[in-house]
Design goal:
By secondary structure, the chain is α+β, with helices and mostly antiparallel strands. The protein contains 6 helices and 10 strands; from the N terminus they run H-E-E-E-E-H-H-E-E-E-E-H-H-E-E-H. It has 2 domains: 33 residues; 221 residues, 4-Layer Sandwich (Glutamine Phosphoribosylpyrophosphate, subunit 1, domain 1), CATH 3.60.20. The strands form 2 sheets. Strands 7-8-1-2-9-10 form a 6-stranded antiparallel β-sheet, covered by helices on one side. The chain has a 4-stranded antiparallel β-sheet with strand order 3-4-5-6, with helices on one face.
Length: 260
């Protein structure tokens, strides 16, 4: 009888623990897909082109994302913003409003970290670039609570950032490719993505033998309407496909005569 009483209470307690664990796990993995891994924003002060490109090990179909390029926002003739790592649309919307108000990249980041939509800026990552009279200004931010490896590289006219990476070399390879590749902004952004297209660049995709599950690239000319960039390409795959999305993206672009 004592044993039966003990077993009954043990079972009830175990069920409660299992329920709580399942609930927490469900909430965790519901948020986790919003992580975005590596990306770059850049401008060409001479041509006036602005661009954004990135990739991540997230199955967009599984989690209901309608577009592949949601991380980046372009402002034709002015600059670009990438919002990632525990992505929240409100933070991106706020960043866009501050950009349109004339704030510099550094000022926008300072504002965002003080006014995070959920009050936790340490989970966020941003990359911003804006054209100015004498060239360009760029800035980036990586919160202390983003998943390692996480970091950023900022140049005169570009910002490269990433999280859940195999190491700093992912960002370093992207920078080297961007700086040494000849051609227009589109081809330089593509080269940056290709430089990180190795298995496990996003550590979650190592078992899939790819760098990521989706990739995008977009570039706007100064005369392009907002949200209608002249160049917009993207590819999405699923875990288990074992197909490198960056290479598929490159092949799609080359098939249409770009960056051969």
């Amino acid at each position: 009888m004592i044993f039966a009483y003990f077993w009954k209470n043990f079972f009830i307690m175990g069920s409660k623990v299992l329920f709580i664990f399942t609930l927490i796990s469900g909430l965790f993995f519901q948020v986790l897909p919003s992580q975005t891994t590596y990306s770059i924003v850049a401008v060409d002060p001479i041509t006036g082109e602005v661009g954004s490109a990135g990739a991540s090990c997230v199955d967009l179909d599984r989690f209901g994302f309608e577009t592949d390029d949601f991380v980046g926002e372009l402002f034709p003739g002015e600059g670009a913003i990438n919002t990632q790592a525990w992505y929240i649309p409100r933070n991106q919307q706020n960043a866009a409003k501050k950009f349109e108000s004339g704030m510099s990249p550094d000022q926008i980041i300072q504002w965002l970290t003080k006014n995070d939509a959920d009050g936790n800026p340490n989970l966020r990552q941003y990359g911003l670039v804006r054209m100015v009279k004498d060239g360009a200004q760029a800035a980036a931010f990586t919160g202390d609570s983003t998943i390692s490896y996480a970091g950023q590289i900022v140049g005169d006219n570009y910002a490269i950032q990433g999280n859940i990476l195999s190491g700093a070399d992912v960002l370093e390879r992207m920078e080297e490719a961007f700086l040494t590749t000849e051609g227009d902004l589109t081809c330089k952004l593509l080269a940056a993505l290709e430089a990180a297209a190795f298995p496990g660049a996003d550590t979650r995709c190592l078992g899939n033998i790819t760098s990521s599950l989706f990739a995008y690239l977009k570039v706007a000319q100064p005369s392009d309407p907002k949200d209608e960039p002249s160049v917009l390409y993207s590819v999405r795959t699923a875990m288990g496909d074992e197909k490198e999305p960056v290479i598929l993206l490159r092949n799609k672009m080359r098939a249409e005569g770009l960056c051969r």
